Amino acid sequence: HARTTEGRQEVVAISLYALCNAVKHLGPGFLRQHLQKRPGLFAELCDLLQNLQTIGHEAGVAALRATGAILDSRYGQNRTEMSQLSQMLGLSVPHGIVACALRALLSEEPSDLDNHYKVLLAALDLFQITTASNHQTTVQLGHAGMILAMLELMQKTDVKSLPAVVAMLRCLELAAEVSGTTALVLFREFRGLPAFSTRLQQEVDLLMALDFNGDVYDMEPPPEDVTDEERTRYWALLEEVSARRRLCRQLLKNIQVALQCSEVVQAGLANVFQGPLMDVLKKALQEPHKVGLCLFGTAIDIVSNLIQDDPSRVPQMIESGVLPGIVEALNKDTMR
């Protein structure tokens, strides 16, 4: 088996996962010792990252996870230790290599959707790590239409795609936070605020259309004598509600980045009364238990910050029904 292509891919994946777990549990000391024996490790990982489509999904995920674990191991160390480790790692994984790998995954038309999303999620996680340590993200995000590809992924509404959409939005949030220039590219060139608001409106509508009342987590699980179909339907509903609420909250966080970024505000790109944002917030405030109290709280936080930044917005907030909606929604259930 080990001599077949699948067998070799499996061996590579197992080896990389072993390295990943060792780095996570044994720490940078183990990594330093390993790099002294294998100084070319990072070059080999870079080669794997540039060939994710050909090495198989298991080896691809393992390579991405191992690289992420190695980069993460530098954080939390004192400056001297981190400097020594960085020297051993060379220049670490170039952010552009990760960006190219991610761009290729975003443009791929997969035949095996489940495995494709596993690799894509791992690539998005690694992209977050390299973005956090590399503030020059504008070139990489603009490379070969990266932002456009990400926004295309954002349009997917099936439950299976939602974790990848959330991870992608987290990447955009992080990139916009660490670079004002990137934020301008996203919110000016690609009209990020209307795009996020429109997608949030769509997601809230899908959430409202689901067949449950009150808080879904207060529902009694199906009794033992129900059919398998009913039991499957119950757990599928919980999964979908959780995934959609998580996506809504991430979209609100992306919107918050736009509203708090000075470059975006100064460019006049943070007009919350253009587009569907106010309508979405009002709808979320009308049924807090349906959208989830966490999302409800984030919506209130956005409204509070908007008023704090510019008190002259209060009349518009009242006229739009957002402030009256907050007052009506505040009760012992939402404040517990």
From TrEMBL:
Domain of life: Eukaryota
Stretches assigned to the DUF913 domain: 181-331
Identification of the protein by name: DUF913 domain-containing protein
Organism expressing this protein natively: Noctiluca scintillans
